[in-house]
Amino acid sequence: MLRLAVGLIFVVVPMLELLLLIKIGQSIGALPTVALVVGTALTGAFIISRQSLTVVGRSLEALSNGRTPVEPVLDGLFLLVAGALMLTPGLITDVVALALLVPPLRRRIARAAMRWALRRTQAHLETFTTDAGPERRRPSAGDSSIIEGEFERIDERPLRPRGGGSGRSRNS
Predict the structure, then answer these.
(1) I want to staple 82 with a disulfide (CB 3.0 to 4.6 A). Which of 47, 95, 97, 115 is the partner?
(2) 3-state DSSP helix/strand/coil percent for the chain, to nearest 5?
(3) CB 38 within 8 A of CB 118
(4) Nearest-CA neighbor of 110 among 75, 86, 82?
(5) Angle ∠(12,31,10) on CA atoms, nearest 5
(6) Other CB atoms within 10 A of residue 15 CB
(7) CA 141 to CA 159: how far, in whole Å?
């Protein structure tokens, strides 16, 4: 389903862009239409470069405070998408890119995309853990892939010699 939607986008959007550019060109002329497309691309590139610096600063700030920079990274991802849309000639993609450049709208879209991705991942995990196939089951307590053992952290206490504390082995 998702592949079909992406395929349609790659076919339908360029056709709509071309139709819109032809209509605008007929209304205002070819040169103003080209100027409009180039102007929106330059404006978008300028805005993206400014906002990218802000995203990098927010990411570094989150890291220095010991937090995971999830929101700044998502902002950066959507700025990258906006940049790719701005470089694509056409006005529909420019409008979508400009919408992604508005921080509150971009964050709302990012949250919706994350909810969608998490639901999709959760559905995949449920399918993975409930499948009865031999490769898809959870290991049980008696499973041979579980190794039991004891451990001791040697970095938390000083090293002590083994075998009575004399430092010499019993065989000598």
Answers:
(1) 97
(2) 70, 0, 30
(3) no
(4) 75
(5) 15
(6) 9
(7) 34
Q: Which residue has the tokens 């998702």?
A: 2
- Entry pTM: 0.60
Rounded to whole angstroms, what are the CA distances from 33 to 17, 83, 158? 12, 20, 77
Tell me if 163 sits within 8 A of 169, measured CB to CB: yes
> 14 in helix, strand or coil?
helix
CA gap 125, 121 in Å, rounded: 6
Q: How many Cα neighbours within 13 Å face the side chain of 103?
A: 8
More confident: 133 or 54: 54
Per-residue model confidence (pLDDT) at position 136: 47
DSSP per residue, 19-50: HHHHHHHHHH-HHHHHHHHHHHHHHHHHHHHH
**pLDDT tens digit string along 26-65?**
999 999 999 998 888 888 888 878 887 888 888 899 889 9
113: tokens are 């995309």
Q: Which structure tokens are listed for 2? A: 């998702």
Neighbours of 91 (CB within 10 A): 16
Nearest Cα neighbor of 23 from 11, 15, 40 is 15
